[in-house]
């Protein structure tokens, strides 16, 4: 029986994806490198979809560990990789390059490593779905670093869709999303920032993790979509 694997599925968008895939039936696995976060995620998702999701501690940058997990749960029908890089924001004049390198080490390289390590364990009609961000395509001052990171992720989509066919390869490009990525802000500052950001967006609201997850599940399950990046940014690219 084929399964779904969500790498980075222990919080935020990844956890919402796992829950939505589990509701559609089939076996869903979530993987993350933080055991405490995984345990918390499993408690939350078991309350929502009892017994439908299995959890694994995994460092996506460890190719051998990824391959071993993929082999143990395969064949994999839907692979979703949603990793976050926390550095790389700020004006170029004083951009901390070490922080940007770390962001690539947190998001780009583990994504590529995990992709390579799971290829042999995908079904012939599998889907691969990655997560970029609006900074890859919107002219927002202060995002040259983090924008290049997300552009690198989104730059994988069309070449791999052609190379790996009939496996389908897609991505979503979110804008502002209320997830733990923003936990570095104090609660009051976060609320104020989101209020200001929402007012600038055509949709006048900040996305939830479930909003983005719906787009990911569409890409993962619709057999006629490949080589596509869905912009699910509330119109941020229009007003940037």
Automatic annotation (TrEMBL):
Domain (Ketoreductase): residue spans on this chain: 2-180
InterPro entries: KR_dom (IPR057326), NAD(P)-bd_dom_sf (IPR036291), SDR_DHRS6-like (IPR051122), SDR_fam (IPR002347)
Keywords of the record: Oxidoreductase
CDD domains listed in its UniProt record: SDR_c (cd05233)
Annotated GO MF terms: oxidoreductase activity
Family under the similarity heading: Belongs to the short-chain dehydrogenases/reductases (SDR) family.
Protein's name in the database: SDR family oxidoreductase
Organism for this UniProt entry: Kribbella sindirgiensis
Source taxonomy: Bacteria, Bacillati, Actinomycetota, Actinomycetes, Propionibacteriales
């Amino acid at each position: 029986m084929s399964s779904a694997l969500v790498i980075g599925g222990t919080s935020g968008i990844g956890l919402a994806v796992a829950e939505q895939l589990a509701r559609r039936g089939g076996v869903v696995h979530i993987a993350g490198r933080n055991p405490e976060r995984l345990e918390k995620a499993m408690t939350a998702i078991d309350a929502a979809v009892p017994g439908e999701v299995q959890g694994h501690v995994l460092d996506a940058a460890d190719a051998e560990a990824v391959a071993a997990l993929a082999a143990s749960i395969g064949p994999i029908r839907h692979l979703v990789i949603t990793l976050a890089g926390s550095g790389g924001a700020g004006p170029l004049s004083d951009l901390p390059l070490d922080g940007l390198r770390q962001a690539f080490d947190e998001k780009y390289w583990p994504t590529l490593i995990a992709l390579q390590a799971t290829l042999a364990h995908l079904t012939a009609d599998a889907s691969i779905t990655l997560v970029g961000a609006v900074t890859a395509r919107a002219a927002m001052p202060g995002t040259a670093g983090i924008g290049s990171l997300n552009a690198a992720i989104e730059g994988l989509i069309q070449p791999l869709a052609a190379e790996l066919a009939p496996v389908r390869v897609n991505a979503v490009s979110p804008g502002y999303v209320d997830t733990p990525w923003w936990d570095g802000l104090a609660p009051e500052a976060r609320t104020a920032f989101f209020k200001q950001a929402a007012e600038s967006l055509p949709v006048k609201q900040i996305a939830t993790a479930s909003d983005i997850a719906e787009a990911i599940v569409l890409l993962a399950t619709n057999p006629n979509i490949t080589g596509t990046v869905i912009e699910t940014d509330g119109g941020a690219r229009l007003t940037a």
